[in-house]
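ok, trying the design again with the full structure, not the truncated one.
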């Protein structure tokens, strides 16, 4: 396996008048191609800040981030936007779908932003929507006409439409009930089995055990790592290992 994303001596400081908050502190991290990396930690530990820095949505105060060996930290805002569109997919706790556009158009527009053919993007979007269980009669509906679980599955398809090398997810099941959360997690598991690189922030153990690698973040520093291997449903040893790891970390 080869590294797809590397952070070196990463620092992030937020300043408020005379007060400085050091959220990330000389953090080093490597994400291997095909990994499903989960980032856990207590509230305020810097999980989302790290995710946004790694994905180029926010700039670190110090340190560098490299994507497949090429540093992206120094890129202009416009160049970073192009990088994100071409190489990254995003799924958030809130789906951020445009309520004035149909389900299908919410997805197609992301493909058009990178210059893809509309017909080709539409066909891929339809195929992916069917794969995640969104019925064809819903393609022309507006997001507000779907359930929360359906909206989040649409958001996952939007994140995957440009075939990203790496998918970033920030609490993707946080606003879902247990049944809809299971649908989304099953989709992530299937994507991972097909070789998709995923970096996911979560506070939920059921979500975390889907990853093959769990990092624990405390006060802006990675204090522990657990390798779980490939997820298999009903693996109680996996659950016990994760629970023991989190207890050891003080979670």
């Amino acid at each position: 396996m080869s590294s797809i994303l590397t952070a070196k001596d990463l620092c992030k400081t937020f300043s408020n008048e005379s007060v400085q908050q050091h959220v990330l502190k000389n953090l080093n991290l490597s994400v291997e191609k095909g990994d499903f990396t989960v980032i856990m930690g207590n509230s305020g530990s810097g999980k989302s800040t790290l995710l946004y820095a790694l994905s180029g949505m926010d700039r670190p105060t110090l340190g560098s981030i490299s994507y497949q060996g090429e540093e992206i930290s120094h890129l202009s805002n416009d160049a970073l936007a192009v990088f994100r569109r071409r190489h990254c997919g995003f799924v958030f706790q809130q789906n951020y779908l445009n309520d004035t556009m149909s389900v299908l158009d919410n997805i197609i527009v992301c493909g058009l932003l990178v210059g893809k053919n509309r017909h080709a993007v539409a066909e891929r979007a339809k195929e992916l929507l069917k794969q995640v269980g969104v019925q064809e009669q819903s393609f022309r509906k507006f997001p507000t006409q779907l359930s929360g679980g359906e909206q989040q599955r649409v958001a996952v398809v939007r994140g995957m439409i440009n075939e990203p090398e790496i998918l970033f997810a920030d609490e993707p099941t946080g606003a879902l009930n247990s049944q809809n959360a299971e649908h989304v997690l099953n989709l992530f598991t299937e994507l991972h089995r097909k070789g998709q690189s995923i970096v996911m922030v979560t506070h939920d153990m059921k979500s975390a055990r889907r990853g093959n690698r769990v990092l624990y973040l405390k006060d802006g520093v990675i204090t522990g790592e657990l390798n779980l291997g490939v997820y298999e449903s009903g693996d109680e040893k996996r659950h016990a290992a994760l629970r023991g790891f989190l207890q050891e970390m003080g979670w």
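Keeping the full-length input from now on. The chain has a mean pLDDT of 92.
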